[in-house]
Amino acid sequence: MFQNKEEFVAEYTKRMAEAYGRSVEQSHIIERFLLLGDMTREYASVNWKQTKEAVANNQSRQMWYFSMEFLIGRLLTNNLMNLGIYDIVKEGLAEMNIDINDLEELEPDAGLGNGGLGRLAACFMDSLASLELPGNGNCIRYDYGLFKQKIIDGKQVEVPDMWLRYGNPWEVRKAKHAVNVKFWGRIETSFREDGTMEVRHLDAETIKAVPYDVPVVGHNTKVTNTLRLWKPEANEEGIEGHDFITYIQEVNKISQNVYPDDSTEEGRILRIKQEYFFASAGVQAMVKQHLRTYPNLDNFAEKNCIQMNDTHPILVIPELMRILLDEYKYSWEQAWDIVTHTVAYTNHTVMAEALEKWPVHMIQRLLPRIYMLIEEINARFVREVNAKFNDFHFTNRVAIIREGMVHMAHLGIVAGYSVNGVAALHTEILKNDCMKDFYTVFPEKFNNKTNGVTHRRWLAYSNPQLRSLLDETIGPEWIDHPEQLGNLMAHVDDPILQNRFMEVKKQRKEILAAYIQKTLGITVDTNSIFDVQAKRLHAYKRQLLNVLRIMYTYQKMKADPNYRPYPRTYFFAAKAAPAYTFAKKVIELIHSVANVVNNDPEVNGFIKVVFIPNYSVSIAEILMN
User: Fold this and answer.
1) CA distances from 251 to 53, 173, 205, 259, 292 (A)
2) What is the structure's pLDDT at 238?
């Protein structure tokens, strides 16, 4: 591939003619973006190939991160920066009269998530590659993102998030690695002459899972890992016994969008389908990859770790049991030993009402073999707990199946060798409150892994002004070794540095203000305090409390002409789930308050309220810097 600006220009020009039959001058901006994406992915592919070969040759243990969300944001700048070719490409494009910023702005945010859980997954993958650790992501290739949020008359309106409108230059379709995932049907069992049980899944709806692989480029390293996105496709065998039109609709629904509405039974079944679809496909692919290097699955746990990001991937547990028992004839004890040394569970909530659970009858009908295995896991666990504690009520509280529901978090804790919260306080609440009974049973499993963010995207790449100041002050090594940011403490009392830092903050506020003016037509005071609340809109996120504070301040100013606080601009950015009436009402309230406050000349010099629609990673990069 290209090594300098001249080679890049020559390669880009040649490839434009080959791919689109156009000169660079005649090409469309979309063609320019897609070509640059293809070239960047191919540049990374050499390292991608070498990483896979090194993992196999070194027989390294791999981490497989299963998550319903990967909020990866735009990848062009990130990948060019991590590969160390950003300046070459930028200068080469400029020579062809192309502004790289125009191409960067054209890239849509990948529609693979919704909030913090998905951003954690994305940061995790970035850090693994940059730390030269082998790790892969597993998710669904959603046709549409959550939704594109528009605000009309102060109300949220959802329109399709067509993030794949122009295609995705970062992905590679791997049809040869497709696997089959089965739903519905019935289970027949019989015993062979050697006493082992044979299991047959009959009359199933079989759907093909086709992987689309996206390279995860490490910073300043040759390690390039894989984010695997599974796309459901029709299977010729899966149509038998099913209506053709209905079958195709069932296939397409699985990847239609993130988090279908689960307020109906149909929606809940679809959600379970999504969860099993990517869990089954991912585990099957892991097993096949393992067997390309090793003769059997005896050492599977030694060479693989599955990290389950929240409860959505919990079905990897019975799925791995199914494969070990039914396809590779392991005994229950052998299979359980492998599973319980392979899977680990990350908990994301301490609220009982938010812990995922599904009606038994849904799992039983949709996933008959999987339910049989969950039932057996539960029966064995209940017997063990009852024998140890001899307390019916205690045993009932920790049961995986109780009150007609399958409790996914309970299954994750029982099978996982590690259970972590995502903040020190969170983990302590798990141990001492909402998971106290499980902590009594398995104290050795609980540990903490505080949520982190990749400082490369969220500081080095999205805040070049601060990056430049840091480089001048402590050198650029902090990008590869973030612990060196501690060296700033030696300069903390330097008044010149303090002033320069405040100037950077002002520049970033001006960038945000310019974005607000351009997109919303609202002028904000960059000398005011910027008060930002940007996250998924939910009752427990407390956006309503924030709005009530603004209303209180406004009323106090109106009642007391002598009360005038330091000017403050309140920024909100959040999407409300389409069926979440409370959250959508809060958005209406925010806009109603903004309409009153922003148009009151008596107070709008002191308070301003701004709601930024369609919150995304790209908007967060402006808003949080």
Assistant:
1) 34, 18, 10, 16, 29
2) 64
* Pairwise CA distance, residues 614 & 49, whole Å: 37
Beta-bridged to residue 305, according to DSSP, are 63
CA atoms within 13 A on the CB side of 624: 19
Contacts of 306 (CB under 8 A, 6+ apart): 64, 66, 283, 286, 313, 316, 320, 342, 343, 344
User: Do the strands 179-183 and 205-217 form a parallel or antiparallel pair, or are they unpaired?
Assistant: antiparallel
Quickly count: other Cβ atoms within 10 Å of residue 174's Cβ.
14
> The tokens 């301040």 sit on which residue?
553
Residue 306, CA distances (Å) to 14, 210, 314, 322, 442 in order: 43, 20, 10, 16, 19
Q: What is the residue type of 234?
A: A
Q: What is the pLDDT of residue 625?
A: 85
Percent of the chain with pLDDT over 90: 92
Our CA dihedral for 98, 99, 101, 107, rounded to 10 degrees, sits at -10
Instruction: Summarize pLDDT for 213-253 with one digit per residue, the tens.
Output: 999 999 999 999 999 999 999 998 766 666 888 999 999 99
Type of residue at 166: Y
Pure H helices in 360-445? 360-366, 368-389, 392-398, 408-415, 424-429, 436-441
Are residues 518 and 505 in contact, defined by beta-carbon separation less than 8 angstroms?
no
The residue count of the chain comes to: 625
Rounded CA gap, 1 and 615, in Å? 36
Mean pLDDT of the chain: 95
72 neighbors 33 (Cβ within 8 angstroms) = no
- Cβ contacts of 43-49, under 8 Å, gap ≥ 24: 43/1, 43/2, 43/83, 43/85, 44/79, 44/83, 44/215, 44/217, 44/224, 45/215, 45/224, 46/1, 47/217, 47/222, 47/223, 47/224, 48/215, 48/224, 48/226
Model's pTM, two decimal places?
Answer: 0.95
